[in-house]
Amino acid sequence: MCSLPYSQACENNKGPILDVLSRVFVSCRDVLEMASGTGQHATWFSAQMPFLQWQPTEMAQHIEILKPRCSQYSGANLLPPKALDVSDRPWPVEAIPDALFSANSLHIMPWSSVEALFGELGDRARANTLLVIYGPFNYGGQYTAPSNARFDQRLAQQSPVSAIRDFEKVDALASNAGFELREDIEMPANNRLLVWRKD
Ligand SMILES: C[S@@+](CC[C@H](N)C(=O)[O-])C[C@H]1O[C@@H](n2cnc3c(N)ncnc32)[C@H](O)[C@@H]1O
Description:
It comes from Candidatus Seongchinamella marina. By secondary structure, the chain is of the alpha/beta class.
């Protein structure tokens, strides 16, 4: 069997993220995951939360990385991966589902894409839609740990559009889109898990 695309970070963070998602998504049915990467989160969360129907998505140019692991998933609650670039609006979905999740993506995509993501959700998400974002964030213009400062330097070397985002700026976009911050949870390895609900 060929080895599947693999992220060690996903393996490390999937348990702690599941602990929160299994509580926060307990009354949800449909989840759209943005920037699903290798599909490790999509397959693990689908298996652990069979009450959810999980839609993994990726940018078209990276979707072949996502497909192999998803195609090995044997349950019925993981939908086939769909191409989605969050900056291409309107998104190619009939409706925004009742929950959205993304890990480690806001610091990779350009800020204009972060703005587009919240713009789309502001226009199309219904009341009570949950948005859960996992990753590193700065607070008050400061890194939360020296390791995050080093990580940000590496991001800048890899791409000038990538950077650890300021929590306050992201929360302002969310607020403009009608989303209220419900939880801001400290996670291992200096990451955060942010939960917003649309009013
Ligand atoms: C560091 S990876 C994270 C992947 C996965 N969520 C994880 O936690 O391992 C960042 C992902 O963001 C995706 N991405 C970047 N810009 C995007 C955009 N505009 N729309 C959707 N996905 C995007 C990349 O293709 C990549 O898979």
